User: Fold this.
Amino acid sequence: MKVACVGGGPAGLYLSILLKRQDPSHDITVHERNAEGATYGWGVTCWRGLLDKLHAHDPESARAIEEASVTWNEGEARVRDLVTRRPSDEGFGIGRHRLLEILAARARSLGVRLEFEHEITHGNLPAADLVVAGDGVRSALRTGHADHFGAETKEGRNRYIWLGTSKVFDSFTFAFVETDHGWIWCYGYAFSPERSTVVVECAPRTWTGLGLDGADEGEGLALLEKLFADILDGHPLIGRSAGSGSAQWLTFRTLTNRTWHHGNLVLLGDAAHTTHYSIGAGTTLALEDAIALADALHTHTDLGQALARYERQRTSELLSIQSAARYSAQWYENLPRYIGLPPEQMFALLGQRHSPLLPHVPPQLYYRIDRAAERLEALRRLKRWLGPKVARGVHARELASRK
Assistant:
């Protein structure tokens, strides 16, 4: 099969690796519009579950990714001068640039052609049996068939900015700072022995009240360094990585599509879906898309059947994750509801922010129920049953409102 992967991000590169492992005779080219090594972003996160999947599907790249990652197993929350620290699942951070280096090298070693500075649009599609649109949230290939794919975006309320720092965090760290214009917060995690990612978020009125809407990059970074001085320990915040412009304040756009394939064209990664950054699943979901698509293509010789199976599987698997991301974003948008709780309670509910029950239950009552559920099996079963039921009901109402 001749395959053209448009977009040299993690999803497209990993798909090319998996397809070459399945059948070395596949003719696969990855087309990337940017120069090699030019990428945005700082570090990305994943958890042990993803690494286990990567080890199962391509042990060589999985070993390289794990060896290049830094790990943490604790979370820390700071509210004013109060600090709470708790154990967490094992997390992994790796620089996006390093991840792409590893995947590109592995793809080349298997015979995949990588063509950089080669932009593909709807008007110059390569001749191939399968064209994979892994060209991101603003996918040109998806836009070329906009009516068919039925993309829909929902814009979040809060403003956020993606930064780096030379401060190396030893845990996944949250910091909430009260200002005269409302709360501003960040979370940080290491992705190398020298660097960490810091994502800063606030409500729109805080953003404008602090003057961040009119500040240039240097002024904005200086203000944020002052606000988060307690966790930065004198280290600077850094805007964009070298050569990728200045850091921008954004609002998050959640993307969904009515369908994921059209003829021999299929969507992958951010071109198909996005989930709010606060659950840290973007790279994981992109790689899982690649795994599912490769498996479907291996199982079905008929391309249409393979693409239909891939779409069914991934849209089903994404329902719970998209729900978790939606509620996580809403938790931050409704921060005043939780910020006044005692630190231990607030941190516990921070960890429960993806729950569909939490917005409907008074926070202190939810906290008591959650603690009781840890001790009583009957309450645990009720919580496991009721949460998805509420999420499905909310999701069904949202789908009905779109018709």
